[in-house]
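Memo to structure team: turn this sequence into structure tokens by end of day. - J.P.
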Amino acid sequence: MKLKSLIASLVLSVSSMSAMAETSLKFTLDWKFEGPAAAYLAAIEKGYYKEVGLEVSIDSGKGSLDAIPKVASGTYQFGFADINSLIKFKDQNPNSDLKGILMVYDKPPFAIIGSKQTGVSSPKDLEGKILGAPAPDGAYAQWKAFTEVTGIDASKVEINNVSFAVRESMLVQKRVDAITGFSFSSYLNLKKIGLKPEDIHVMLMADHGLKLYGNTLIVNPAFAKENPEKVKAFVAATIKGWKYTVEHPEEAVKFVTAKNKIVKESVELERLQMCINDNVVTEDVKKNGFGDVDYSRLEESIEQISMTYTYKNKPSAEAVFTSEFLPAKSERGL
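Reply from structure team:
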């Protein structure tokens, strides 16, 4: 009886030690649980985080401007946010050590969307037309830089500051000739309300001269300083989640629909596939691996932001992003 008790005690002790070894982490998205969130949910459901001793919980967000301060303050250890918003945050908070650690969107989804009916399929087509652009829209924030690099005469474009709620419907009704928005979101919204795919013209700003990167993983600086190996483990497991999702999008998207009961699987699969094709697995990523940045390009993108934003404490590329937590290039293929 004593031997059984001793064995039971040892089993309980080992179990407790194992539980203590698993680190609980909080991760905030920039937006709702939609198609592109599949990779992080896959990393949970396939056990990639658990394999490296991490217990990860994921929450939806309300935009990058919501995610960034949550991670900076330590409310969340990790987050997903637009690096261009992070650059401005660093300018406004020069003493913050907050950085990107895994570049997910090699190209941002910032886009101008026109239609066959309004005759807008290229940047110069916007001259003499009306652009519907919500004032707080992330794509519209790049408008001045976009006109600079494409040679659009901005004085010939009328801006109508429409609301997010009516943006796509106003394009369908031809009350505006084009809109700003996130490529995959506006495209799917336009399809939903009646435009045929062949009548929708999506112009990714990154395909027309803007050097901007998109969304990156960010980490709380204090946590990173105290737990560099756990940050590396989180990054490696997240890369595995993305690899699984790129290879098995139809399966990965089911993790999204299980988490968010009100979305349609077919819609989120299309959103996810657009994100993979346009933003994640770009030609640069195929050549150089997933997750890192070209620091000269990042510096150029910081300069391009100055076309639309006045810096007070302009950060360097190295102050905004670090490659120190990334695995070797050979381990970052998608």
